Amino acid sequence: MDESMDESFESMQNMQDLAPMRHQEADPADIGYDVNVGDVDVAAHFNEPVAGTSHDAGYDEALARFMRNEIDYDEFMQQAGGTSLEEETLETDEEEDESDSLPPPMVIPKGEMKDNAGPSSLLAHSGENGAAKRGRIEVPNNLRLLMQEVMSQDELTKPIPFMPHTAPESATTAEVGMVSKTALYREKKKLTKTLDALMGQANLIYAKGQTDEALTMLLEVIRQEPSNSDAYRQVAEIYREMGEGEKGLQYGMLAAYLDSKTPCDEWVDLAEQARDLNCLDFAAAAYGRASRIDPGLWLYWEKRIELLEATNLRHLAMRARLLALQQTDCVRSNLDFDWFHVMVKMVAEYFIEINDEEKAVQSLETFVMRARQFGRSAASQHETLAGMWIGKGKFKEALKSILALCHDNMKVVDGQGEEIVTVKLHGFAGYDVAPIPLPADARFEVDDDMPISLMCKVAICLINLGSKAPAQHLCEIIMMRSFSDVEYIDPIAELAQSIYQAEWYSFGRRFLEQLQQWQMLVEEPQLWFIYGNIMAAQKEFERAMDAYERVLQLNPSHVDGRINLSGLQQRAGMGEKALETLKDYDLEGCTHLPDERLLQRQAEFLFDNNRTEQFIKTARMLLTPYFYEIHRDPDCVAKKRICRNSTVWALSTTLRQAALHAIQNSTLEKFVKRLGMATYQQTNRSYDDMDAVTLHDYCLKLIESLGKLYRYVDMLTVCCYAFLQPKITRDQKSITFQNLLYFCAIKAENWLLGFEYARWYHQTVNNSVLFSLPEKEVVIKRIFNAMNYVFCHSQNVSYHRYVMRALVKNPGNHALQAISGNNSLITGTYRHALGEFLRVWVANKNNPLICLLIGLTFTHMACKKDLSSRHMLALRGLAFLRRYEQTRSVKQEVYYNLGRTFHQLSIFQLAIYFYEKTLEEQPPKVVTLMEDGSEEVEVAKRYDMTRFAAHNLALLYQSSGNVQLAMEVYEKYLVI
């Protein structure tokens, strides 16, 4: 084996020292080349004659000098007649610039009231209906901007003002301000007379048949005064008479847009013209303008919606339906309530589906107003609408809606019994309610038919608007009602919670005690919980504990009640009982955190008893206030860390930003923000008792526990939080989590953070004086191995740019050259990849990986089109693959790669031969380190190439027509 390797090395050395010969000039065997790859003579497959050229001879000579490292890559490309790296880059940039500089096709954008995505959102959907088959009609450049504005406005605008006079650049602001308005008016009037005369002259010569001259004069008028709608109309009429309907339509649309007095009939005519020309986007825009002028007529809305649906613009069609529901006159359009009901249901379902809550609320409000117009009941929809407004914090809108639509059942009066709130209904268009907020002397007169749920909502609105006296008066009326239905519980609980949040503790206590006479309300745990909160706020802790215990009796899974009870028990000195209250219960759904000391004791108990899942939940709650500091004070995290200890490296801003990016949108981030905010607002409770060492230990235990459960994403998030935590950083304990960052990032497959860590570590090692030269080289090799692991799983242009910059600083680094070659090989820049690989190969000729990469590069180059030296490139690739075969001991891998190479070269008989040899070989054996520290040799199934080779072999059999043999291969090797 050693003799064969020496002979092969001599042949490779001869190829390096001598100028390569073309295969038609001499047989490879005659010049001393080893033509056997895997014991197979491959020379017979490359004997097809290729016409030799002087260019090929020069290329071979240049390649030989390049392989001997006598010239660099750019010189090699110059001699071979190719392009250098810089020229390739410039060509790419020029192509991008040319593509960027090409003017886009002129397509008039769509129009809609507040429906447009912007002037750049162009309707190209009409091409699906046949319009795209016609060529684009070019419009003068000075009209492009104006064309983009035609259908992108939310409402009809005034004509663009013409300003013929501009102050000279040298004039000051004061001088410009001194220009007389009279002079400007005279100049504009003079110019207008001139342009009117020019338009008249154009009409006259057009009547004489001089069409081109008339168009030129009218376009000049447009250039001088772009807001002159008459000029656009005349140009449109000329184009229509000339038979160019699409151009006539464009100028007609411009004329109608510029004239604020364009009647509805003209927009309808333009829409019909656009429809005849199959310009559905223009037609939809024109009907949109017509519907704005006459919004009460459903016909225009209907046609616009039909056109929008035809062009697959369903979102705009739904918005048009919503506008039609709000503005259409049912009498003029002969529409009944059932039509409105079906339409509102369709619109509301669509906006709920796309999570557009604002539009869904508008559709629901429209239904309520239409129901009142037709005398139909919509009480449940009205209650839902008021609840949605309250949920969004729009208390004034909710209050106005209830007072306006329930005016017959609820009146607002003063001390003398006179109404003080005026309600004006405008049919289906809306209502006016004044005054809002209510005055302090306002009182309510409520009928028995008024639902308690709406009364509670009115009281909630008054509480949040600060109307204390009217709210308490309404609550007194509510307390006098009878509660015999389950549906009243939730409104009463919401009202009680609002009273507690408003800190009306005495009134809230009386309100809840008054309601306890009803059996249904006595059995409600949420009311007892609010009652306990009020008692705790009034310092009556015994009664508060009794209330919380009643809550747990009625609902043992009430998390907040359990937490509050444990806190009061801890405050009263009953520590063991407080811990027992929290033990064995899931506290994930709480709205605030338990006492920190209880959480620490519970966490220690769970960790010691190996109850990992419960420990993770408890530790997350314990660390949440400390993790929240990162969100509460981001400036503290963004500051550059300067460590006094010279052995601790300062961290880059980029690495910290990458760690923050890894935290974003994670489950733990949402949990920390929700509970951290509530905890921070509780100023009477301290969550800053743990020192840096204790905090470090809990974070490390949490990371280990998450790793045991293979929850790597959560493990990375905790590691990033601990790495950025200010208290840990100040005590220089963050070095632990700094070292864990790369491991956690790789496990969680966060390749960006892994790359940023490897880049920071590389820069730090290069600039550090702590390493001697041999040790530094070893560390740098490990860094490049870690970085290459990231590149194998993720590709990004920033990675390649960093490698190229690092190569400039370290020109002889083989690892960087190999990584750069890999990036170029993946992106298809084979010549650059070949140059990088050959530079590494010169110093590492027995490295099987480099030989494989060079052979693979030559193979890819041989498969490119328009090559006159295809066979010579393939032979060179096979020469390096032969070297790879001799130096690589894992024969199954070698035979598979050889078979894949011949498969790519379309030499199928050799590909079949090597695939079959792959199936005959056994999978490789690797040494595995066991848990007790011993080593064990076992077969590595993940490195087994049998299934890959069998699949490719079956494909070859199937493509050749031998289906039976392909099925046998599948059944033997690929059946699970």
TrEMBL record:
PROSITE patterns: TPR (PS50005), TPR_REGION (PS50293). Gene3D superfamilies: Tetratricopeptide repeat domain. The keyword DNA damage does not apply. InterPro entries: Tfc4/TFIIIC-102/Sfc4, TPR-like_helical_dom_sf, TPR_rpt. GO terms for cellular component: transcription factor TFIIIC complex. Residues 84-116 are annotated as: Disordered. Pfam families: TPR_19 (PF14559), TPR_6 (PF13174), TPR_8 (PF13181). GO terms for biological process: transcription by RNA polymerase III. It comes from the Eukaryota. Residues 85-100 have a biased composition (Acidic residues). TPR repeats lie at residues 525-558, 892-925. Keywords: TPR repeat. This is Uncharacterized protein. It comes from Pristionchus mayeri. The lineage of its organism: Eukaryota, Metazoa, Ecdysozoa, Nematoda, Chromadorea.
